Amino acid sequence: MVESRTILIAGAGIGGLTAALALADRGFRVVVLEQATRLEPTGAGLQLSPNATRVLIGIGAAPKLSAVAVTPDVVRVRNAQGDDLARIPIGNAPQRYGAPYWVAHRGDLHSVLLELCATRPDIKLVLGARVDEYAVHANGVTVASAGPTVLGEFSGLVLIGADGVWSRVRARLFDDGPALAAGRTAWRTLLPAEAVAPEHRAPTVNLWLGRGAHLVHYPVRAGAMINLVAIAEDDEIVTGWSAPGLREEVLEHFPAHRWSATARDLLARPEQWLRWSLHGRPAARHWGRGPVTLLGDAVHPTLPFLAQGAAMAIEDAAVLADALARRPDAPQAALRDYESRRKARTAGIVRAARRNDLVYHLGQPAAALRDLAMRTIGGETVLARHDWVYEWQPPASFATPSPPTQGDGVG
């Protein structure tokens, strides 16, 4: 592979690794620069809707991922008192959308992507390589890394900043300040499936809506573990993704006079929680400049109220790879094409997630009207209102045979 076909990616997260695989499939050599010196299977659960799984199937992740993912039958929506509001039928996603709806632990998806990258001689993963500076020149871009463990320079046609909400590439590119605190804190944990009631082990995404807070839980790791995420309005800013959280502080945001005993019992079971603060940004007018662009949370951090943060990074990766493959001899024009194809879509998803934030956390009397509306329209109509999200199609080059549709761990 000639050096002129080298793509540099900053960040070995879900978006960066998906982009690396998609680019390698299209004849590029990829160097992924990751500042962490060790990659650990961390993070919370992910909902991988059909718009994302189409891409994952296209890069060959389906066989290994389907073995550890769970295919939920429904999204069960309840209010804080435990009253059913809607059952959204997502189990028929392969028939309705042509691709499955999976839930998985982020660490499991990340491990699958890493394993796939390790089999590719045209993908090089460099750990301990922080993007401290870059220089644009006639042949593309050169990145300088001063650590934490790798000192040196890396050159390529383009640089993709897939380094998350605290992107160093974005800071160097635009210097537009840090991401803005959203006034929300998320707590996450995993429980062994045998530690919860049988109803919580079912292949169901459970969503509880309450005043100023909501709770999501579903099985992951082939049904062996239960992923819990509790999100509440909270102005305290926590640094990083894995600060320790206390059970007492979680329960304080889900008080007994508002939340059912079933929900609180589930929240009381974990002894350890991890917490992080949610952040966002206004829609970016520009995503890149010259041979540099951004991907995923680095450019459009998406609040988790539509379960589309990872999916947007995965979609970005597919369109980016397609754009560069179409115009390999004009990489800067290819990047502008990628950006123009993604801006409206991602901005719409970010807005929809923010709207859901308001709807999820309503207090009375507005919550009663929300509950009545959801009961009246029913789960099928709620799903239809998400068709515009799930029906998204990647470029035609990602078309593949039908994948496995069941993560064989629940039952």
Task: Kindly describe this structure.
Residues 6-352 form the FAD-binding domain. The protein has 411 residues and is an alpha/beta fold. The chain has a domain at 3-68 and 100-178 and 282-355: FAD/NAD(P)-binding domain, CATH 3.50.50.60. Helices cover 34% and strands 27% of the residues. The protein contains 12 helices and 18 strands. It has helices spanning 14-25, 50-58, 62-68, 93-97, 106-118, 168-174, 247-252, 261-268, 309-326, 331-360, 366-384, 387-390, and strands at 6-10, 29-34, 45-48, 74-79, 84-89, 102-105, 123-127, 133-137, 140-146, 151-156, 158-161, 180-192, 204-210, 213-220, 225-233, 243-245, 273-280, 292-294. Strand 8 and strand 9 form a beta hairpin. Helix 1 runs parallel beside helix 5. It starts with 5 loop residues before the first strand and ends in a 21-residue tail after the last helix.
